[in-house]
Design a protein that fits this description.
heterodimer, A: 250 residues, alpha/beta, Rossmann fold, 2 domains, 6-stranded mixed beta sheet, 4-stranded antiparallel beta sheet, B: 338 residues, mainly alpha, ABC transporter involved in vitamin B12 uptake, BtuC, two-stranded antiparallel sheet, 4% strand, globular, binds adenosine-5'-diphosphate, binds magnesium ion
């Protein structure tokens, strides 16, 4: 795993090394090492409370790690706030959606596009419309975000993140509670992101959906990475099986 | 579904809002020539209305768009007046002093923003009140003001009363037009969308690349400046500066009243609220305590039965927007190719 693809400086990699995160006395992440190519697609699974969301939050800059470093495309971003990381091309979605409730769906996505690397307002418009279209949200573009249901709020998280023009996108359980056909639409959307060369880290419980997109799977338990590699191998790893039988799988 | 994407799908002005803009220009031009038509009393009252509009728009910008609810905005009103008195004392022309005092309020508000914007929600609201009370006390210590004795803007006497009244009226009109025009432009550009995003969810705004601190600072300083202008204008028509009348929380209460009744977070709402407040004051202001009780009751009724304010209700009911700062997406059917 995580073999550097030749360019020594790691300019084409996104890595966290020795990431530790404590909340008071509670250690939620314990010296996690994570590394991926900028255009790779990696899935993360693990029982609830394993620290998946905390890892994403720390990598994206919402949390400062208690120890460890984060590098992104050759930059050391450990001390950069989330906004600065986003401008470098690293963006996340939130497991519990955080819409801008007083604005319309379109405005939610436009404000994200406008802070990306666009050169003009028209380009931001185009990017916002494209993101809404890709996420199947054109029909609700003019609705106030506070009137959206959970499903659309999750789509909005994805559309907004996409509109920033990311190099790597971190997805946190955007597929929970979907019907089979909705899940297929989501898979198609994520596959389109891959075609565009966007790197993906995707936390999801529904493994068969995840496996349609990712070529590499990481399993976390109790603040550590317990398996990392080819998805089938990871799922049959004895430690992974034990973690799932021991913890709550849903 | 594939789609031919074009920026022209995003609509901002509508036919109605273009007409409203034309109407605004005509009204402003009409207002500009009124000093030759109306009597002294009416001109004074209208100048007061312009000051109310400025105050309502600024509090709306801060709280309605920025989510920064403050009950200490009287601090900037008081400082605008105080700095004017102070600067005029150095021999500066009183009207020049007003302009410089307003800028000084903006300058002072910047370091203050660094401290106050660390506070959230209720802490910020009350913190602003506390700082306002402290500022009031510090102004009391100035030997020129001598506690609550106060000081007059004596240098205004260099102008004949009629000319003075007209100049103040025009200054208030120009200040209102400039401040509201500037605010409208700001809210319509990218920064305006960021301000509202931060209001709705600060963490999400940051995670999408918005510079939260810088944006909040901008709106804080802008609101301070605008209210400083209002304080300077109020002093010019009242001529005497007495700290407790300017640093009174009643000014912020008026701002809140105007914005709640007119419609918080709506550009038209603050203007409408200022006009309503002005009319209520004109008709019932002489009733003293009962007038204040009446204001309180009206505000209460609005927050209970019309939480979006008058303009919010009109906007929801009829779907109209005269001064739109938002965005609408209209996809023409021919651009969809399935
Ligand atoms: N802000 C926080 N403060 C304290 N504890 C937290 C915080 N965020 C997460 N935790 C704890 O860290 C653990 C891991 O949480 P999380 O990263 O959300 O797990 P997962 O996403 O894998 O379900 C949980 O026990 C949770 O209670
Ligand atoms: Mg989680």
């Amino acid at each position: 795993m995580s073999v550097d693809s030749g360019d020594g400086a790691g300019a084409s990699r996104f890595s966290g090394s020795g990431i530790t995160k404590r909340f008071g006395a509670l250690a939620v992440l314990e010296s996690v090492d994570f590394s991926m190519g900028m255009d790779e697609a990696v899935g993360i699974v693990g029982p609830n409370g394993a620290g998946k969301t905390t890892l994403l939050a720390t990598l994206s800059g919402a949390y400062q790690p208690s120890a460890g470093a984060v590098t992104f495309g050759g930059h050391d971003v450990t001390r950069l706030p989330a906004a600065a990381r986003c401008r470098l091309g690293l963006v996340r979605t939130h497991q519990v959606p955080k819409p801008f409730s007083g604005m319309t769906t379109f405005e939610n996505v436009y404000v994200a596009a406008a802070h990306g690397d666009v050169r003009s307002r028209d380009e931001a418009y185009e990017r916002a419309i494209d993101a809404l279209n890709l996420c199947g949200m054109l029909a609700v573009a003019n609705r106030q975000a506070e009137t959206l249901g959970l499903l659309d709020r999750k789509r909005l998280e994805l559309a907004r993140a996409l509109a920033t023009g990311p190099k790597v996108i971190l997805l946190d359980e955007i597929g929970g509670g979907l019907t089979d056909s909705e899940a297929q639409e989501l898979v198609q959307t994520i596959q389109e992101l891959r075609r565009r060369g966007i790197g993906i880290v995707w936390i999801e419980h529904i493994v068969h959906v995840l496996l349609q997109v990712v070529e590499r799977l990481i399993c976390m338990d109790a603040g550590r990475i317990i398996a990392d590699g080819e998805p089938q191998a990871v799922m049959s790893d004895p430690e992974v099986v034990r973690a799932y039988l021991g913890g709550s799988t849903q | 579904m594939s789609l031919v994407v074009s920026p022209s799908m995003v609509q901002r002005w509508t036919r109605l809002s273009r007409r409203a803009a034309a109407a605004v220009v005509i009204v402003l031009l009409g207002l500009a020539v009124l000093p030759g038509v109306l009597g002294a009393g009416a001109i004074d009252r209208l100048a007061a209305l312009f000051v109310y509009v400025i105050m309502a728009a600024m509090w709306n910008a801060l709280a309605g768009y920025g989510g920064l609810v403050s009950v200490g905005q009287q601090m900037f009103f008081g400082l605008g007046a105080y700095f004017t008195v102070r600067l005029a004392e150095t021999g500066l022309d009183p009207f020049v002093a007003m302009g410089m005092a307003s800028l000084l309020v903006a300058v002072v508000s910047y370091p203050l923003s660094l401290v106050m914007l660390r506070l959230k929600g209720g802490e910020f609201a009350i913190g602003m009140w506390v700082v306002s009370a402290l500022t009031h006390l510090m102004v009391n210590l100035d030997g020129l003001i001598q506690g609550e004795t106060g000081r007059s803007l004596i240098s205004l006497n260099a102008y004949a009363p009629g000319a003075r009244r007209d100049i103040i009226y025009w200054l208030a009109l120009v200040a209102m037009t400039g401040l509201l025009g500037g605010l409208f432009a700001l809210l319509r550009n990218r920064t305006g969308a960021s301000i509202q995003a931060i209001r709705d969810n600060e963490e999400a705004a940051g995670s999408l690349g918005i510079d939260v601190t810088r944006t909040k600072r901008l709106i804080f300083v802008l609101a301070a400046f605008g209210i400083g202008v209002a304080g300077a204008l109020w002093l010019a028509s009242a001529t005497t500066f007495q700290p407790k009348t300017y640093f009174s929380v009643q000014w912020t209460a008026y701002m809140i009243f105007m914005v709640l009744v007119g419609g918080i977070g709506r550009f038209e709402g603050a203007i409408l609220g200022a006009v309503i407040f002005f009319l209520i004051e004109t008709w019932f202001g002489a009733l003293g305590v009962w007038y204040l009780i009446g204001l309180g009751v009206v505000a209460l009724l609005f927050s209970l039965f019309m939480p979006l304010g008058l303009w919010g209700a009109i906007e929801t009911r009829f779907g109209v927007s005269l001064m739109p700062v938002g965005y609408r997406l209209e996809i023409p059917p021919q651009s969809r190719k399935d």
